[in-house]
Amino acid sequence: MWLTTLFLFALLLVLLWAYSAHRQSYWAKRRVPTFPKTLPLIGHLSHMMSKKRQRWEYIDEVYRKHGGSTFCGYYEFLQPILLVGDPELAKLILIKDFDHFVDRRTFTFPLEEDDVGNHFLTNATGAHWKGIRSVLSPSFTSGRLKGMFPLVADKADKLVDYLLKLREEKGASSFALKKTFGLYTLEVIASCAFGMESGTMEDEDSLFNQNVAKFSKIGPLRMLKFILFMAAPKLCQLLRIRFIQDEMIFFMDVVKESMAQRKAGLYRGDFLDLMMEAQVDQENPSSKMPKYPLTEKIIVANSVLFILAGFDTTATTISFVAFLLAKYPEVQQKLRKELNGLIQEPSEMTYQGIMEAKYLDACLSETLRMYSPAHFTERQCTKEYKLPGTDVVIAPKTVVSIPIHSIHHDERYWSDPEEFRPERFMPENAGEIKSGTYIPFGVGPRNCIGMRFAQMESKLIIAKLLLNFELSCVPGSEDLELSRQLGLMRPSDTLEIAFKPLR
Ligand code: HEM
Fold first, then answer.
1. Beta partners for 72?
2. What span, in angstroms and rounded, lies between the C-alpha atoms of 244 and 264?
3. Which atom of ligand 1 is nearest to the CA of 317?
């Protein structure tokens, strides 16, 4: 009996191995170079999820050694993915031939309780994505951003006061970057997305803070869940594995409460108002239809998404800029000089002034080149596509991954790429940047919808910081230590910089 069981088990293993080998020969059959060291069934995922080496480090090695700087293939489990590092090819996929690559890798959430996840702009597909994006885009025009500027400036002032208090009351001479800027970006996005005072700076243990912190932690278990939803949504449905967790329910309730207030007549002209203007009027179906009617579920989903997509990315970016300014005092000085020339009093800061500060823009751009929180982006093929100049045909559903970090560090496009040199981005040098090689916010119709908002928010706080404080490295912490957590590229949670009031 045991011999039969052993035989059947061995047979099963052989069949599994053969099936895996067959699926993982997908790229070889198409004569596309493949990353080395694939594991049966797992593919290359183990290299990408290791805590020893971050995903971007592994991808960078492949980019440099195994054809990734043009294109090459790899496997996540049995799924073939194409890595495209050639900026010209990437531009075709992201911009010119976008109609073949409308979607991002899709996560399907089959349980009714999780359906909200199917309406996130990041995850929505085809015409549904296009409709939601067309309603949300007007929220990010310069006119709207200008209108929101005072709200953001108010939070930036609050952060300056918070730091002054930290120094006076607690005698602090340094602060933790990620935590401190997280307080600021959370207040900003809560205020601008749905008019909520989150009070994160007054009460660091607030429910708001606790729930955001829970959301930002992507442990191996959470990652595994994501992969399961991606690879086997039906199995998740069968096992009733839920995607929506308590922290997301918390934010959904906050949005619903704000929506009830808006229905009672409150108007702020923020993201939530714009979405509600496009809501299906269920009580009055004969009323004029908006261009893409949104349901309450879509509105809740995307309000929550703005918090989740906008808070951590921006806090991380500001942390990187502040660290680099502390590390390079001559850059800090030059930037302060520019700001002093444009703005006499910190309270006089205007949208125009901030957006016209060229060196400020250059410092932010160079930081995002060196440290892109979103170190890659993806598209999913929606219509068969022949890669121009080759005979490789990309089949529908194939995921294409663009290695933003590697392109930003390729010495063919950037001289001394590991050097922090904001001058690269000054207008007189703009002609030297090869198109498609600088994409921290992605590019094309599906680029980051919050880009200009994030730039305004980051520039504003950096300007206020420099006009109020001198920043320097804490002795012994002159090297930027990156977090080992999965997900975004971020500084380690404990990284601090020193600050000293200027007046
Ligand atoms: C410095 C901060 C930020 C960085 C570095 C960043 C980066 C990115 C990147 C690389 C993408 C993918 C683009 C592509 O695939 O071409 C993206 C998409 C997106 N981002 Fe951002 N982002 C930032 C801030 C924000 C903010 C503040 C918001 C919201 C208010 C936001 C909302 C989104 C959304 C909704 C998408 C998906 C767009 C779509 O699929 O149509 N991001 N972001």
1. 83
2. 29
3. 1
Dihedral angle, C-alpha 330, 481, 68, 377, nearest 10 °:
-90
Report residue 109 CA to chain centroid gap: 21
Three-state SS string across 347-393, please?
Answer: HHCCHHHHHHCHHHHHHHHHHHHHCCCCCCEEEECCCCEECCCCCCE
Q: CB–CB of 428/434 below 8 Å? A: no
Mutate to test the pocket of ligand 1, among 103, 311, 448 (most ligand atoms within 8 A of CB): 448
Q: Which of 199-203, 213-217, 459-463 has the lowest mean pLDDT?
A: 213-217
- Residue appearing with tokens 């002093």: 340
Query: Alpha-carbon distance 475 to 391, whole Å?
Result: 55
Ligand 1 within 6 A of 125 CB?
Answer: no
Task: Summarize pLDDT for 371-392 with one digit per residue, the tens.
Answer: 999 999 999 999 999 999 999 9
50 pLDDT above the threshold of 90 = no
448 Cα to the center of ligand 1, angstroms: 3
Domains of the chain: 1-107+375-408 (3.30.43.20)
Give the separation between CA 491 and CA 344, rounded to whole angstroms. Answer: 33
Alpha-carbon distance of 3 to 500, in angstroms, equals: 75
Q: 223: helix, coil or strand?
A: helix
> Taking a C-beta distance cutoff of 8 angstroms, is the pair 305, 120 a contact?
yes
CA distance 328 to 362: 14
Tokens 């294409």 belong to 400
CA of 468 to the centre of ligand 1 (A): 30
Helices (H) and strands (E) in the chain, counts: 19, 9
Helix (H) or strand (E) holding 3: helix 2-23
Q: How far apart are CA 194 and CA 207, in angstroms?
A: 17
Residue 392 C-alpha from the chain's centroid: 30
User: Alpha-carbon distance 116 to 137, whole Å?
Assistant: 20
Q: What is the pLDDT of residues 312-358, one digit of tens each?
A: 999 999 999 999 999 999 999 999 999 999 887 766 789 988 988 99
Q: Round to whole Å and give the CA distance between 35 and 66.
A: 6
Please list, in sequence order, all residues whose beta carbon lies within 8 angstroms of the beta carbon of residue 189, skipping any fewer than 6 positions away.
306, 307, 310, 311, 314
Which residues have C-beta within 8 Å of that of residue 51, sequence separation ≥ 6? 484, 486
